[in-house]
Amino acid sequence: MKKQWWKEKVVYQIYPKSFKDSNGDGIGDLKGILEKLPYLKNLGIDMVWLSPVYQSPFIDQGYDISDYYKISEVFGTMEDFDTLLAEAKKLGIGIVMDLVINHCSSEHEWFQKALKDPYGEYAGYFYFEKGKDGNPPSNYRSYFGGSAWEKVPGTDLYYLHMFAKEQPDLNWENPKVKKELFDMINWWLDKGIAGFRIDAIINIKKDVNFPSYEPDGPDGMCACTAMVERVDGIGELLGELKRETFAKRDTFTVGEVFNLKEGALEEFVGENGYFSSMFDFAPHMLTEGQNGWYDTREVTFLEWKKTIIQSQMECQGKAFLSNIIENHDEPRGASRYLPEYAQNPDGIKMLGCVSVLLRGIPFIYQGQEIGMTNCQMDSIEDYDDIDTYHQYREAREAGLSDKEALEACYRFSRDNARTPMQWDAGENAGFTKGTPWLRVNENYRMVNVADQEKDPGSVLHFYRKLIALRKSEEWKNVFVYGEFLPLFEEDESLFAYARTDGEKKAVILANFGKEEMTVKFSENLGKVLLANMYRPQQINAREVVLEPCEVLVCQVCE
Ligand code: TEU
Ligand code: CA
């Protein structure tokens, strides 16, 4: 595949509220991020994706934007942003902004104007629709529970919100809306940002007839994704979006795409796709049950591994996916994908290694590089996430006790990944001098950056070596552009694959099992490139014994 600058990058996701607080108000901010740039540089990071830092009432933690041209005062000023951008650039780090354009905040001036004049120009920026026989226009359930339609006060109209009612959906059929959004995107690109992570983008195309569908739950509603999955024509919108903005420069874009239609991969992220890349959510979707967090499915190691392999094979030679083990919406990978006996530094390194060396762009979520884990809360009041409240309520309504519902939240709450970054063993994990907006995970005394800096055997040091290997002159071509070859696919505890550029070849072997295992090859295992347990520099054999939780990356020769 064509060599492109962004294919060689390693990206770090920052959740600004929880990264580093510089002024003691308990909330992370831009100056805090600025302070930690050298840390990111040291880790080997090339691009930083900032979850939203725009002006927002924070109903959905900034994914409800009330002014796309302003920085939230919680995070600082536009001057702080410009400084961050410039300083990052000096270190060779690009800034990727979060682009939330399916919806805005109900406090955005467009929506406020629409409410004042529900039949006027600004109502046309949204979907203001007549109800049917005293009911909403259709039976869609929003992502955060309840109807996706909310009454426009003083009228018989409803407005559409696929997410919270404070997040009205923007009308992409209206050319004025598109123009406003494209201008805004270009304004940010003019500043010199590296690109965008594009939020919930699959939702922008609506079937404007808003047909009701077969209910999929006792509430008589159906998930609003029923419409998203059936409607055609998103391609025209995304093509236009690209043409009017990203294509004019060499912008990096990564789409948050769920519910992609079969066969649409290349159209979306092929060589001439709408986006540079999109996240591979396939392994994360596996746990999804019918009714939310309280009835998720058990997923076996084999199923999880095969799903990743399948994604890898599907995009081979066609596209570059972005690989994650966690993000701000997902539980911590260390708590989710490792069996209990592997939830230790060795296991965490193993998981990181198999993820970062996959074909595609590695995204590392803040705290992943030190092995942060899910956080147990004592009560639902300890949480600060709209989706967690909704999932907790659902669980209680389904008859679960408070304890059981909290257990489900402990496994799947979005706040698991949103607890403050653990910088040191001091008060509040060194995140803030004030009171943190969300509880710090108790394990910060054991799991924190400062201690790991001092320990060459730590998860943090391993991640540095891992990223350095991927980017090294010697191996870059293999790990970035090389082919992905699955190995021992049916094995129930070994995760193994090879990467090769036709000249050099490396294998990644990871023992997710409880017992040691012997792995036999037809080729010779040579130079050890990376290991999480003791290994000599060369193996020089056709077989190797792996301890439980051991990962080994080594060169193979004929
Ligand atoms: O998430 C979009 C999304 O599709 C949701 O289903 C998401 O997976 C959610 O976590 C369900 O539990 C994006 C953002 O990543 C998320 O943080 C926002 O809340 C959402 O869009 C609305 O902007
Ligand atoms: Ca602050």
UniProtKB/TrEMBL annotation:
GO terms (BP aspect): oligosaccharide catabolic process
SMART domains xrefs: Aamy
Protein species of origin: Merdimonas faecis
Family under the similarity heading: Belongs to the glycosyl hydrolase 13 family.
Glycosyl hydrolase family 13 catalytic domain ranges (all copies): 13-418
A Pfam entry, by short name: Alpha-amylase
CDD domains linked to this entry: AmyAc_SI_OligoGlu_DGase
Top-level division of the source organism's lineage: Bacteria
InterPro entries attached to this UniProt entry: GH, GH13_cat_dom, Glyco_hydro_b, O16G_dom_2
Lineage: Bacteria, Bacillati, Bacillota, Clostridia, Lachnospirales
Methyltransferase is among the record's keywords: no
PANTHER family xrefs: ALPHA-AMYLASE FAMILY MEMBER, NEUTRAL AND BASIC AMINO ACID TRANSPORT PROTEIN RBAT
Protein's name in the database: Alpha-glucosidase
Keywords carried by this UniProt record: Glycosidase, Hydrolase
Signal peptide: none
GO molecular function, one term: alpha-amylase activity
